């Protein structure tokens, strides 16, 4: 059906610079939002009324590790994008590492694009990578259509994706500024002094091995890099991924106050989990940087409230159960990464609604701002005339307990099993085409690659 309408007493629409929830009827034609009518408007096309359920813009998740090609036994585009659709995510951006080859050259990017054919249930953009050896390849990689690039300041765990130093970043930033794309940074610096920490089955031993100072120092370095870039006339966009340490928030606020193009994201696991409550030997909770104490979590929420943290993304980083060492509880050997792609909105809504947030706020934090960050905001991230008809239907009054059997990503494991959450995704539409409804996937994969320069 290429021409139809959805209506509800609660629709989050975007006009001008802000969104609001109103009663409305959304007319969809040829994959786009054709018009926004008053609720109850008579139209010539079929109209579906979802009652009190909320019609929201589809989520845009700009931090997802899919690992295909090369490590498809960890995850793949088919299962990852199905999980995304089940979570109301209509657009995601894939990370450049954990796949083989890593996305650091035009040729590697073309290999990844070949791998996505007929596997995308939602639309998908791609980040490239910056490593010490590929500075000369950056221009071609960016021209090929990646939306931006990412680097690590610490060992990534993947030999083909080594960390960069200041000189590498200084060489890369003028190229990134020319293309006006963001530079994503995994901000941990191994400053030493903690290598003698014995990592046991106790979660706190792992936490002690990756202190806040590693993040704090890395973010301070990136502010220096941003200042140098601005002074050179480039003013490259610097973005801190998966912020965990609340101690770095003042540094981020200072960078913003100076007029630097500096931003940071955080993730559901840092906002919903606390170190004090993580059982020992439960390797599913391991990620880098680590989940920290509850007091730190509360400070992160405050930063989401006041804008020091710009948005919330999943950092879905899956692997095989064997690599998680679930049976032995060996936290030191376990791969670090949280798998929870489809549960982000219910997890955040459960916490956020008791803190005074509305679903309009979450649409901004998980859709509009993430689309803007990835350079997709002219087509994604809001319900407004002319944008892609990317829509999720959300029952904000429902609740459920997360279980293994409802997981759509490849391996049916997540640290959230047994957790009760509020809000449930009922339907997901990508460019006006229903891809998910009541726990069923509809038709076949219709997602498309999103390439910079072809949007």
Automatic annotation (TrEMBL):
Keyword Metal-binding in annotation: yes
Cofactor requirements of the protein: Zn(2+)
Domain of life according to the entry: Bacteria
Domain Amidohydrolase-related, residue spans: 54-435
Pathway: Nitrogen metabolism; (S)-allantoin degradation; allantoate from (S)-allantoin: step 1/1
Record key words, sorted: Hydrolase, Metal-binding, Zinc
Keyword Transcription: no
UniProt-listed InterPro entries: Allantoinase, Amidohydro-rel, DHOase/Allantoinase_Hydrolase, Dihydroorotase_CS, DNase_TatD-rel_CS, Metal-dep_hydrolase_composite, Metal_Hydrolase
Coiled coil residues, start to end: none
GO-annotated molecular function: allantoinase activity
A Pfam family assignment: Amidohydro_1
EC number(s) from the headed UniProt entry: 3.5.2.5
Family of the protein in this entry: Belongs to the metallo-dependent hydrolases superfamily. DHOase family. Class I DHOase subfamily.
Its biological purpose: Catalyzes the reversible cyclization of carbamoyl aspartate to dihydroorotate.
Subunit structure: Homotetramer.
Entry protein name: allantoinase
Organism: Colwellia marinimaniae
Highest classification ranks of the organism: Bacteria, Pseudomonadati, Pseudomonadota, Gammaproteobacteria, Alteromonadales
């Amino acid at each position: 059906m290429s021409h139809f309408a959805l209506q509800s007493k609660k629709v989050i629409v975007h006009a001008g610079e802000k969104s609001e929830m109103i009663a409305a009827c959304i007319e969809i034609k040829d994959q786009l939002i054709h018009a926004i009518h008053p609720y109850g408007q008579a139209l010539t096309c079929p109209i579906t009324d979802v009652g009190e359920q909320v019609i929201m813009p589809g989520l845009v998740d700009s931090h997802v590790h899919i690992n295909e090609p090369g490590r498809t036994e960890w995850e793949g585009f088919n299962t990852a994008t199905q999980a995304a659709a089940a979570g109301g995510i209509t657009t995601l951006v894939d990370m450049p590492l954990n796949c083989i080859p890593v996305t650091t050259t035009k040729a590697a990017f073309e290999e990844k694009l070949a791998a996505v054919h007929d596997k995308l249930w939602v639309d998908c953009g791609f980040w490239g990578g910056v490593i010490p050896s590929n500075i000369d390849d950056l221009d071609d990689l960016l021209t090929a259509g990646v939306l931006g690039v990412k680097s690590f300041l610490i060992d990534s765990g993947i030999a083909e994706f080594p960390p960069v130093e200041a000189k590498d970043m200084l060489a890369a930033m003028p190229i990134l500024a020319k293309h006006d794309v963001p530079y994503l940074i995994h901000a941990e610096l191994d400053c030493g002094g903690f290598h003698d920490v014995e990592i046991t089955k106790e979660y706190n031993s792992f936490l002690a091995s990756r202190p806040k100072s590693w993040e704090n120092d890395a973010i301070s370095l990136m502010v220096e890099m941003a200042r140098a870039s601005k002074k050179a006339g480039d003013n490259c966009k610097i973005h801190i991924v998966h912020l965990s340490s609340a101690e770095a928030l003042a540094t981020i606020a200072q960078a913003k106050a100076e007029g630097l193009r500096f931003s940071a994201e955080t993730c559901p696991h840092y906002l919903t989990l606390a170190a004090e409550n993580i059982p020992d030997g439960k390797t599913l909770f391991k990620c880098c940087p680590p989940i920290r104490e509850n007091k730190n979590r509360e400070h992160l929420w405050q930063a989401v409230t006041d804008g020091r943290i710009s948005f919330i993304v999943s950092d879905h980083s899956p692997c095989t159960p064997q690599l998680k060492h679930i049976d032995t509880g060996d936290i030191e050997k376990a791969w670090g990464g949280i798998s929870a792609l489809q549960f982000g909105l219910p997890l955040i809504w459960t916490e956020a609604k008791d803190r005074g947030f509305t679903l309009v706020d979450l649409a901004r934090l998980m859709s509009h701002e993430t689309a803007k960050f990835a350079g997709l905001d002219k087509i994604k991230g809001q319900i407004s005339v002319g944008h892609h008809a990317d829509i999720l239907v959300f029952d904000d009054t429902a609740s459920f307990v997360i279980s293994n059997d409802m997981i759509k990503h490849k391996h049916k494991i997540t640290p959230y099993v047994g957790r009760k959450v509020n809000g449930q995704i009922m339907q997901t539409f990508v460019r006006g085409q229903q891809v998910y409804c009541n726990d069923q996937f509809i038709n076949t994969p219709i997602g498309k690659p999103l390439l910079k320069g072809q949007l």
